[in-house]
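Researcher: Next sequence.
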Amino acid sequence: MSVMPKEGDLAQEAEVVWLESTEELDYVRQALDKVNTRKGKPRYERDGRLVGYTNLAPTAPRRPDSGLFARRTFYLLPHDRPNQPDDPECPYKVGAPLEAVDPRTIEPGKAGAKTPRSQATAQIVPAAT
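Model: Next structure:
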């Protein structure tokens, strides 16, 4: 199960682990997943690919409601703009999914932020012919 991170959900994060370079990614999706472990690569059960995840501090408590740990995962779905940057039919040519954040703004304990880059708000004007 995954949910969007809320204030206070990220206090026990110790580090962000990237599985690939984020330099060329305008955005990644972030979710707060309930998992069995505090650290290590979590099981990934979505379409697309896992781009990164967080590890928790050794003293991070289990969630009282589920007995699991809440950890963020960062991922992209097959139809996301970073996977199809030149496709005019990409559904996120302008804008981005609700859970999309700029990977350059992600730090342990801090939710990622939306930026003009992640939201693709800058329109490219074609050259006059």
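Model: The beta strands are 2-3, 13-18, 28-35, 49-56, 69-76, 100-101. The mean pLDDT is 86.
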